[in-house]
Design a protein that fits this description.
Blueprint (H helix, E strand, L loop, with lengths): L12 H8 L8 H12 L6 E5 L5 H9 L3 E6 L2 H13 L6 E5 L12 E7 L7 H11 E14 L5 H11 L8 H10 L3 E10 L4 H9 L2 H4 L2 H7 L3 H14 L4 E9 L8 H10 L4
Parallel strand pairs: 1-2, 1-4, 2-3, 4-5
Antiparallel strand pairs: 5-7, 6-7
Helix pairs in contact: 5-7, 6-11
The structure holds S-adenosylmethionine.
Pfam families: Methyltransf_31 (PF13847)
InterPro entries: Erg6_SMT_methyltransf, Methyltranfer_dom, SAM-dependent_MTases_sf
Keywords: Methyltransferase, Transferase
């Protein structure tokens, strides 16, 4: 396996969480996932994409609780390998399919999915570019639900630098208003931010959920023993968020692709220019 011999101090943030196989590496952890799934009410008939699915915890949970069909994509082969193992062990391989893919260029036809969910991935990427790709692969009336970190007030340059040291260069949470605008810019309508929360010090709740994730904990002790810098690295990230939590919140950026309509000349020109499908 690619990262098994890499030192923790050489891993970037994505490599670190892929090596650990963390199932809920997003703000609010798995409790936030469950709250959001309650709010969006996925039905068994819907075909769902989990974009940036990580080790597949949310996708497998959806398969088990709702019984819908799900595709999960992630750019990390190691995450996808773990997600497949999870689906197999949890008996949902018949409902969930995982593949390595870049969310900027998804291997699916236009108008393919009923719902795209994403959790803590757009924050690291070009938001409108990702949302345009979600727009393309969603059916008319299809929904997007993206759980992301938001800035509650301006982040001073020194803290932005520290944040990038913890989570990678380019980590860029927007204000709730900017998130809203990004989804609208990509063509979504009825945009709203659901379940907004300030970043609470609810480490214990999130930790209790992490302890239930067998894929994460199965060889965690060995990893901690072999790599003495693992705990300090995790503590540095958690410490940054704890110390500066007044700057951060999170919420579910939610919208719907408009109904297919007959194109007017102006719309046609717009779509040809921006390669956007209605
Ligand atoms: C913070 S993790 C979140 C994973 C998962 N959604 C969760 O909540 O646990 C971000 C994930 O996005 C993936 N990722 C980053 N850039 C990507 C891209 N361009 N296309 C697909 N996945 C990407 C990373 O490999 C990582 O698994």
């Amino acid at each position: 396996m690619v990262y098994e011999n890499k030192r923790v101090e050489e891993m970037n943030y994505f490599e670190l969480i892929a090596w650990l196989g963390i199932g809920s590496s997003h703000p609010g952890g798995f409790p936030a996932t469950k709250l959001n799934l309650d709010a969006i009410q996925v039905t068994p008939e819907e075909y769902v994409l989990d974009a940036g699915c990580g080790s597949g915890l949310t996708a497998c949970h959806l398969a088990k609780t709702v019984g819908c069909k799900i595709a999960g994509v992630d750019i990390s082969p190691q995450m996808i390998e773990k997600a497949r193992l999870r689906a197999e062990k949890e008996g949902v391989s018949h409902l969930v399919e995982f593949c390595v893919s870049d969310v900027y260029d998804l291997p699916f036809n236009d108008n393919h999915f009923d719902l795209v969910i994403a959790e803590s991935i757009t924050v690291f990427l070009d938001k409108v570019k990702v949302y345009l790709e979600f727009f393309r692969i969603l059916k008319p009336e299809g929904r997007v639900a993206d759980l992301e970190m938001a800035l509650l007030k301006e982040l001073p340059a020194n803290l932005r630098h520290q944040m990038e040291q913890c989570f990678g260069f380019g980590t860029n949470p927007l204000s709730f208003e900017e998130w809203h605008n990004a989804l609208e810019q990509a063509g979504f309508q009825d945009v709203e931010i659901k379940n907004t929360q300030a970043l609470k010090d609810n480490g214990n709740v999130v930790m209790n959920e992490l302890k239930k994730d067998w894929l994460l904990i199965k060889d965690l002790t060995t990893k901690i023993k072999r790599q003495p810098n693992l705990l300090p690295r995790l503590q540095k990230n958690a410490g940054f968020m704890k110390k500066n939590r007044s700057y951060f919140g999170f919420g579910l950026i939610y919208g719907r692709k408009p109904t297919l309509k007959k194109l007017g000349f102006k719309d046609w020109v717009w779509q040809v220019l921006f390669r956007r499908k209605a």
